[in-house]
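Hi R.,

Here's the chain you asked about this morning:
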Amino acid sequence: MQAAYLGLGLIVAVECVGVPLPGETALIAAGALARRGQLALPAVIAVAAVAAIAGDSLGYLVGRHGGRRLLTGAGPLRRIGRVLHARGEPFFERHGAKAVFLARWVAWARMATPVLAGAGAMPYRRFVRWNVLGGCLWAASIGTLAYGLGSVAGHLAADVSIVSVVVAGGALAVAAAHRLRTRPPSVPARAFPTASFAGPVALCVLLAVALRAPFLGTPLGVDEGGLAFVAEHWRSHGASLYGDQWLDRPPLLLLTIRLAVEAGGAAGVRVLGAFAAGALVVVTAALARAIGGVRAGRCAAAATAVLASSVALNAVYTPAELLAAVPSAGSVLCLVVALRSGRSRHLLVAGVLATSAALVKQSFLDAGLAGLVFLLGGGRHAPVGGRRALLVWTAGAVLPVLAVTAAGRGGYLRAGDLPYALLGFRLDALRSLAGGPGTFALAMGRLLLVSAASGLAFAAGVAATRVHRLRSDPVVARTLAAWLIGGLAGVGAGGSYWPHYLIELVPAVAVVFALAVADMSPAVRRAAFGAAIAVAVATALGATAFVVASHPHRAERDIGRYIRAHARPGDTQYVLYARANVLYYGGLRTPFPYDWSLMMRARPGAREALYGLLASPRRPTWLVTWQDDDRWRLDRGGTVDALLGRYYRPAAVVDGHRVLRRIAVSPS
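And here is the predicted structure, written out as tokens:
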């Protein structure tokens, strides 16, 4: 344990010299270890306090001697030195005590303040007095809080990082805006476009990733884990659509998930979601910039960052809608770029991306609809001749289809089953899910509530107030309208109306919202920016509270791990009737091709196939009873209950769910 104390002291001290190390996170972790009895809380507080005081003093000396010499000598930093002399020294004269004391609780300020105080010639006696007070209180407050929270400490660390990122990003954005407003008259406004666009967009990407931090360590959800299981067991020349498993999802989604699983397992799937959220921020920002300029691009980046990592939309996981939104938005971006540049090669890419979006999630036909409206409605405004433009876009759209056909010929999937899986099954599922008018109204009300909680409804309302401004660019206006209408149709055709269906609307709404906000007064834009920051921070805190209180999907992971730990080579598994992520964590092969309850309810012959499997020698070794047999009237005659009673015996109860094990039955 002496190494733990030494590591804590080094991290805290080195951070104070300006090196970006997680000093506060290390203190939180040490406090949590003290709660478990592995460290002593008084020793943790003492080590952190001494390290903070010593590190700050070292940082002060670095700034006082090396920093001032570097800034006042000849070279590129001389201008900064003049600013520090003119503004920094008066600041530390008036506010140095408050800055040194309060900076201890703000990660980014904690690294820079000691160095700046030294470079700003703050008297050392005054510095050390407030440094000692701040260091002791910081170590005591954070260490004690982490000790009291115990298992919540890890999520507290995530929240500290998120709030720090948001605050730092807001400060940098305000500073950049101030710089642009106060640029010399001789410098044209267009001298700053790249920096004023790339910097804020990068901060928004960081924000989108940071908002997902509380969920990076949670187990995979039902769809995530189920897709990971099917992708992991996908083999060529199998007995069903994807190896031995049947799934109503397109092959590009499975391929993407498989690459993520092979790269990093469950963590790889979550990293894939974070990458998709960041990519969506960049693409929507570029699209809004191409239509309405740099200011619109920045607004679109901020809106997308908050919505693409929304807890209310379940976007903090890795839903197929988030993955499909990236090529969908990219396709529309290529259409606009083709219109602006007149280069037909962008239409080829637009076609490829439009079909790719549908091959990730079949409801994403929105980009294809936008492309057709763009080409057929563009008339003489099309980037190349109307017929030629349509041929180029169509050629691109066909390429992914040819790739899927080739994969089918190679035995990697049964391409002949795809039309039913992607379309026919959805129709069967809609009939199975259909209820009365009250059921539909309840589902729509739930979606409206989710859209309001996520901020999507607010963004759509703001966009609607200024949509008439797009009339000056009719081709773009029709394209965006078709894109949005296609997204609404995709959401409406889903049937189950889960919150993550609304992710399909995020890029289109974010772009139109950004175009509207960009035309508003600076005061309104600042209010919108402040609201976005407030929503982001509140979302992060609420997400952490949710994770701590509910432990999402922990039961499925625990059951799967129990099966994996007790299984023998050659064992198989199945879950009645729907928890496909249990199969992923169990790691065993399943002899039944349908892993979701909707397949059992809507797929013709699925129930009979299950009865036959349970009555045969191929029945799974391990079986988990997750839902009651009669929940969806899947076992009306008690057939499954009788088969379970004959061929299985309880092995354990894990998190309230029975795990059954197959028994040997002598032939009668």
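One quick note: The chain has three domains: 2-152, 183-215+248-550, 554-662.

Cheers,
M.
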